[in-house]
Amino acid sequence: MLNAVGGHRTTRVGSGRLPAAGGAVLAINHTSYVDFTYLGISARSVDRRLIRFMGKAELRRNLVVRWLMWGCRVIPVDRSAGHGAYVAAVDELRAGEVVGIYPEATISRSYEIKQLKTGAARMALEAGVPIVPCIVWGSQRIFPKGGARHLGRTRTPVMVSVGDPLPPVGTPDELTATLHASMTSLLHAVQDAYGPHPGGEPWVPARLGGSAPTLAEADALDATGR
């Protein structure tokens, strides 16, 4: 629906890397309030898999996001009592479902990969399923945190890239470090393929000449709660 309304041009890279059957954790970068929709649509149309995303329960206060979360069967995470959502996600994985999680835990306003939480690794290890790194790029131009929204017919290009699955081995910290390296490499490859990143644009990372905050600056903003 969002793709149809906005006329967004979604390109998928990495077909065949999402397991055709059985449980898997999809670890997704987080740059926008709607990036889960593009990965969800891609997985449904290309891989014939439904992704059960995990998302912050408070996001349901936004009517558009609430509708999208309902349509994607999102597992709501109450951060004051998050263990219940963790248990539910592991149960879904053991039942052969694909669970999508943002290991950065919150939107990256720098559009770089933030420090990752260990939850995705712990889920994969406990359920005995692979972690699949995923990158969505371009959705930060549509519905970013703290920036202008462009929800009309913008024909904004969005790229979805699925990386090679990581086996559930090692400790949570070791697997998380491997995941961070994989997601960072995948992000850079997607950015190279995406096309021009005009200098000074707010959706472009500082590393590529944009006006988005650096990773350190974004972390400082998050610490202030703004």
TrEMBL record:
The keyword Manganese does not apply. One of its GO terms (cellular component) is plasma membrane. Pfam families: Acyltransferase (PF01553). GO terms for biological process: phosphatidic acid biosynthetic process. InterPro entries: Plipid/glycerol_acylTrfase. Residues 24-139 form the Phospholipid/glycerol acyltransferase domain. One of its GO terms (molecular function) is 1-acylglycerol-3-phosphate O-acyltransferase activity. Keywords: Acyltransferase, Transferase. This is 1-acyl-sn-glycerol-3-phosphate acyltransferase. It comes from Aeromicrobium fastidiosum. The lineage of its organism: Bacteria, Bacillati, Actinomycetota, Actinomycetes, Propionibacteriales.
